């Protein structure tokens, strides 16, 4: 057999090879081996590991959520950007992987970042991670851009990284850019550590053209009690105030506060863009009191709502689903508003009503001890209870099988709300919240989804997000240690939005063409 050879120039030959490689690429990916803990209406990866939500944005009539993703293993390594989109914030569709770790500046991980629409293109700004540097012209963590004209195929900017080094006195922990536009200027806030004080801080850069960035200064920093590293910052305006949202590492527990392994919370203040002065009360307020909530990110909808989503898991713990080939999920989307007292209120977005498929229960009852309500995997439960001062515990009990249960109740004797995952849970944590509203009334909205629970109290000022791991269909009970004068319960079974096969990293001719065009442009520029 003879081989036919022909002569082409170098760029063209590389394009042909890249297209052929992408068209016929077959990559083995990890798969889910057991569906027992798979969620019905939360964002999850098809398999493998998921953590921070990234690039939460609205583009061409659709919401986009990207996420930190390891398609090869259910561990935190090999970070890509997974991708889902939705027309309604409820029904999500998996798309091919958006960003791979395929450049010198991101070879060890495409870390967290954000998205923004600029000149009719969807732009992603992310942190490129390199474990070791050998004389390269960028730091171990630098900031890069990827651009798309269709919201699905992304080309990395030729002259990445656009922010190659941390600012003065900034350590190499320099990541998680959140980009936004104010008037005619683009801004980005990043998490960083001051390498002199070894304390966490948030720093700001600005740009007029997306590609050339100028260091503005420190937005805020820890004074010694707010952690050694600030991750996943977000900065936005809410009801006339400016909110700095972030996930610090290293905050010590203080009474009922900061009981989680790592926290996510916010500062409320007023920001002057001209002077870069963020005036705030220096009070860090926890955003969620559950066991599994981190790395929250927000976006503004076309109708002006501020919507937030977060990673519904936590670092440095056991993950029972890991043996099934996957780890992690994202919370339901929540609308944020600011109360008159300066606290963020979180409520499930109104679109989630579309998940309701049938009414499980609609009743008013008196409860003494426990009273079974129903068995269900995925449900929305609304409870309103009023009682006299002889009652010290009122709420719900969820039996998980194998003598394990979850208790979520108002402890009126201590004026606290308690979420207890039970003695059989090796990650058991008792989380209390002081100053619960109205000690003789309880209003709660619960979203239960196979292996997760999210609780919203009152008007949304207090929330809990936690993973749970039942061995059988959960049984939900009303709970009281006395006679509740009245408990109204309305519950809906919720839809399973995930059906059919999921694309993990299906290559396409279009993706191959985009990447080949990128290579050709880079070769000609060089």
UniProtKB/TrEMBL annotation:
Its EC number is 3.2.1.26. It catalyses: Hydrolysis of terminal non-reducing beta-D-fructofuranoside residues in beta-D-fructofuranosides. InterPro entries: ConA-like_dom_sf (IPR013320), GH32_Enzymes (IPR051214), Glyco_hydro_32 (IPR001362), Glyco_hydro_32_C (IPR013189), Glyco_hydro_32_N (IPR013148), Glyco_hydro_beta-prop_sf (IPR023296), Suc6P_hydrolase (IPR006232). GO terms for molecular function: beta-fructofuranosidase activity. Gene3D superfamilies: Exo-inulinase, domain 1 (2.60.120.560), Glycosyl hydrolase domain, family 43 (2.115.10.20). It comes from the Eukaryota. Residues 42-348 form the Glycosyl hydrolase family 32 N-terminal domain. It holds the Pfam family Glyco_hydro_32C. GO terms for cellular component: cytoplasm. The chain crosses the membrane at residues 12-33. The keyword Transmembrane helix applies. Residues 355-482 form the Glycosyl hydrolase family 32 C-terminal domain. Keywords: Glycosidase, Hydrolase, Membrane, Transmembrane, Transmembrane helix. Belongs to the glycosyl hydrolase 32 family. This is Sucrose-6-phosphate hydrolase. The gene is ScrB-2.
